Every structure is written in C-alpha cells, then in structure tokens.
Amino acid sequence: MNGPASAVDAIPADLDALDRADLSPWFNPFLRYFASEAWRCGGNVRVVREAGAVVSLMVSDPVERVASVFSRSRSIAEAWVRERGSLGMYSDFPFEPRGEVFEILLASLNADLPPYRFRHPIRPVTAGDLPAVLDLMREVYGMVNERWFEGLSDVPEAGFIAEAGGRVVGVGWISLVGTHARLHSLTVRATHRRMRLGTDLLFARLLWARRAGASDVLSEISERNDASRSIAARAGMRRVGEIYFYPPG
C-alpha cells in the first residue's frame, strides 16, 4: 500500500508530535498509543507532515490485514483509502462506494452508571488465561496477531473474561490513555451468545475504567451489529458520530 505521495514512515520523534495532533474528532487521545502499539506488534506506521506538523497518520496490522487512517483532510484520507490494496481500512470520511458504517458510541463516567446486576462471574484476564483467550479470538475472528498478547502487562490494557464449564467463553478489552478509555474486541463464543455475557463484560469494563480514573469511554460498533448496539445502549452509551470501514480493494 502506497497511500499519499508525501507519506513517510514514522519515526519515534513523531510520537511527541502525535500528542499535539488534531487528526480525528474521536481518537486524538489515542493516536500516540495506536502508533506505539502498531510498532510493538510489527505493524506499519506512516505519517504525512505539513510545515512540520503531522496532518495524517496511518497504522496497519500485517497479520490481521487491517489499517486505520486519521486525518482532518478529506483528500489525504481518500488517497490512503484508494491505495489500501489488500488491507481493509477505517476512515472518518465516507467515500464511494460507501464503506460499512461503524457507530461511535460515547459514555460519560462522571455520572452514575445505570444499575446493573451481573448474571455471570466475570474476572480480569491473567497471564495464564492468554492461550485460551487467543484460541477463542481465533475461533471468532480468524487471523489474530499473537504479538499483541506479548508484553500486555507493559501497556494500558485491561481484559475481562467469562467462563462456563471450565472454558473461556467470552472476553472484552479496554484501553486507558489518561482519562480516556476505549472498549474493543468484545468476543463471545457463538454457543454462548444471547446469555447476557456481552452485557456483563461491558459493565465490568466500565466499572474498572471509572475506578481507574477515566472520565469517558468510547467504542466503535457496526450498524449491522444490533446485539452489541443494544448492549451499549443499556449502559447509557450514546451515538456521537460514525466511521467507515472499506474492505480490501
């Protein structure tokens, strides 16, 4: 994938610039973290600079074959999307043919969460759980970058699992950057869906984030995923925008 002609491979000094960059209405607090994680997992990080400032960031995963582009410039984002090649790509902008819509959902943790009674035991992921968690995520998603699980204790991630019959049947992750949190990678085994496991995992992560000092939490959920959208609504998450996923070109 080539992308904009002015794009260059990011260097460590660009991380400081990302702290000051305004590239997305939703993900600015996470830009440095996304770039650092892409490097950690063997991915690609490229930037476009204008007058010394970073005006676009592209991060990609070589195993899962997915990328995200962040830019306030529609023309730069379109160049990335048009040249995405064998990667699926997320962008804030809609282009033709229109990509799959993912809702951006946000909840404030400064207010009380809705009352909730857990249906199933939920506990934090431990190092010993990782082989079973990886097997579950492979079962649901197919290709998973195993390097992401290496060194998790050194990055601001927390995971929670649900078990049934001695097996891991559900897992959900949350990133914390400063006072901002992001929910991602909710995974429930097909045989255990519609049992409120997803709701339990959502509330466990929200409660953890609030205790950890987060003021808000966001998530991206496909418009096609009615079950996950319904779960988010139970927790008081509201739609504030959308992004678009473009399959490999």
Supply the key terms:
249 residues; 12-stranded mixed beta sheet; alpha+beta; 6 helices
SSE order and pairing:
Blueprint: E1 8-9, H1 13-20, H2 31-40, E2 44-50, E3 53-61, E4 66-71, H3 74-82, E5 88-91, E6 100-108, E7 122-124, H4 130-141, E8 157-164, E9 167-177, E10 180-188, H5 197-211, E11 216-222, H6 226-234, E12 238-246
Parallel strand pairs: 4-5, 10-11
Antiparallel strand pairs: 1-2, 2-3, 3-4, 5-12, 6-11, 6-12, 7-8, 8-9, 9-10
Helix pairs in contact: 1-2
Describe this structure in words.
With 249 residues, the protein is of the alpha+beta class. It folds into 2 domains: 8-93, no CATH class; 106-242, Gcn5-related N-acetyltransferase (GNAT) (Aminopeptidase). Helix content is 25%, strand content 34%. The chain has 6 helices and 12 strands. It has helices at 13-20, 31-40, 74-82, 130-141, 197-211, 226-234; strands at residues 8-9, 44-50, 53-61, 66-71, 88-91, 100-108, 122-124, 157-164, 167-177, 180-188, 216-222, 238-246. A 12-stranded mixed β-sheet has the order 1-2-3-4-5-12-6-11-10-9-8-7, with helices on both faces. The model has no long low-confidence stretch (mean pLDDT 95).
Mean pLDDT equals: 95
Instruction: Record the strand order, biggest sheet.
Output: 1-2-3-4-5-12-6-11-10-9-8-7
Shape label: globular
What's the total helix number? 6
Radius of gyration, whole Å: 18 Å
What's the name of the CATH homologous superfamily of the largest domain? Gcn5-related N-acetyltransferase (GNAT)
> Which CATH class of the largest domain?
Alpha Beta
Label the CATH architecture of the largest domain.
3-Layer(aba) Sandwich
Tell me the series of helices and strands, N- to C-terminal: EHHEEEHEEEHEEEHEHE
Oligomer: single chain
Residue share in helix:
25-40%
